[in-house]
Amino acid sequence: MIMSVSKPTQSYATTWIMLLALLTSLGPLSIDMYLPALPQMANDFGITTQRVANTLPAYFLGLALGQLIYGPLSDRIGRKTPLYFGLLLYICASILCTFANSEWSLIAARILQALGGCVGVVIARAAIRDRLDLQSSAQAFASMMIVMGIAPIIAPSLGALVLLYFSWPAVFVFLSAIGLICLICVHFFFQETLPVERRLNLNIKQVLNLYGAIFKQKSFRWPMLAGCFSGGILFCYISSSASILMDDYGLNQQQFAYAFGLNALGIMLLSSINKKLGRTFSVLQRLKIGAVLQLLGVMVLLSASLLSNVALWIVLIGMFLAISGIGFTGPNAMALAMAEQGERAGTASAVMGSMQFACGLLAGVMLNFLLWSALANMAIVMLIFVGIMLLSIWKLSQLRTLERQ
Questions:
Q1: Banded pLDDT at 124 (limits 50, 70, 90)
Q2: How far apart are CA 250 and CA 23, in angstroms?
Q3: Cβ–Cβ contacts within 10 Å for residue 201, how many?
Q4: What's the structural domain count of the chain?
Q5: Mean of the pLDDT values across residues 235-258?
Q6: Per-residue pLDDT averaged across 90-112, rounded?
Q7: Residue 136 sits in a domain of what CATH number?
Q8: Using DSSP, how many helices (H) and how many strands (E) does the chain show?
Q9: DSSP string, 194-228
Q10: pLDDT of 38 strictly over 70
Q11: CB 329 within 8 A of CB 290
């Protein structure tokens, strides 16, 4: 297995980033758009809202497994062909979701939906690494996060709007239509970023060895873990937000959509600030800024969970800080992890994406085992995740200090 030296460039077109953001936005749209429908689905299935929310970790499972397949596959056959397969699977699985008549049939359909939809995020990360260097890729990831940040802002509102006129299956009809739009855009506008001469001739044994080699690389492992557990904080919030805001604080579907969109707007805002600070602070320094913001947010939420009758605005501030900090941690952790991956960028992207959604699955499992209030459970899991993130950033700082000596 021979790897040639890649020569990434320093520029990119805004339209190219918007296309990659559209592909990546399938994830947040599929996760967030049906959140306002959870109480309605729980009523139809005859179960609690929290049990219906278990279909979220199921989606994370599909995302984690699917990326492990698409990553090395895209390193072997290129970036575009896997997009065709994944998007077609996503469209079909979204339609299957409309026929679900129980918690378990929905879980099965959601896993298939995730197996298809995760192709976008793998290919987007790999395509950026194919073309750009470290600083430019950090800027590109920040730009992409700004654009894709629109998805979680509008997704709950779109879901709530659909529910005004139709029942919950219509949400998945809408998602299948978005998948079709992505497929059309890929066919006409996505240009292959991995030429034939740079592709890796991988078999299954080599793929497993490559996964091991990538994970052992400290310059990849520490920023990868920092980014994954930072994202895990978001998944804790997604899994718990409906129970906290709708069940505990009594927000209706549209009010929940506004609150959810505010936090997504925070990610966009901080991603924009992160991008503007690119010439003032290093990638690692900006990663640390995001980590501090997330830590502050988690501490506010933990404090709120220990008190009785805490005002909603305090909880919303804690959520905003914990979630919007991802605008700093996400792009910079991604850029640092992918910086030295070259032609194996697809496989490295798959490892990082799979681990990130494995954190989402872990968050869902942990939330189900904790026995306190929904707010306390969320805050405790977030605290564990932010602790692992801070440890990973500290180890990364040590590594980079040694490299400079």
A1: confident
A2: 34
A3: 9
A4: 1
A5: 86
A6: 92
A7: 1.20.1250.20
A8: 19, 0
A9: S-GGG-----HHHHHHHHHHHHH-HHHHHHHHHHH
A10: yes
A11: yes
Residue 8 DSSP SS3: coil
Residue that has been written with the tokens 């896997």 in this structure: 82
CA Rg, the chain, in Å? 20
pLDDT tens-digit readout, 352-361: 878 887 887 8
> Locate tokens 């001469």: which residue?
197
Residue pair 156/255 in contact (Cβ under 8 Å)? The answer is no
pLDDT at 2 over 60: no
On whether the CB atoms of residues 346 and 122 are closer than 8 A, the answer is: yes
Q: Is residue 1 part of a domain?
A: no
- Is residue 9 situated within a structural domain? no
Contacts of 395 by beta carbon, 8 Å cutoff, 6+ apart: 218, 222
What local confidence, expressed as pLDDT, does residue 5 receive?
A: 39
Contact assessment for residue 138 and residue 332, using Cβ atoms and an 8 Å cutoff? yes
Q: Provide the 3-class DSSP secondary structure of residue 133.
A: coil
Domain presence at residue 7: no
Helix (H, G, I), strand (E, B) or coil at 62: helix
Q: Which two tokens stand for residue 123?
A: 């290919």
Q: Structural domain of residue 54, as residue ranges?
A: 14-191+218-404
Distance CA 149, CA 25 (A): 8
Q: How many residues does the chain have?
A: 405
> What is the pLDDT, as a whole number, of residue 263?
84
Cα–Cα dist 320/302, whole Å: 14
pLDDT value at residue 22: 85
Whole-structure pTM value: 0.72
CA distances from 341 to 23, 202, 318 (A): 22, 16, 36
d(CA 122, CA 45): 34
Contacts of 57 (CB under 8 A, 6+ apart): 239, 360, 361, 363, 364, 365
- DSSP β-bridge partners for residue 9: 132
For residue 379, what pLDDT band results from cuts at 50, 70 and 90?
very high
- Greater pLDDT, 234 or 319: 319
3-state secondary structure of 9: strand
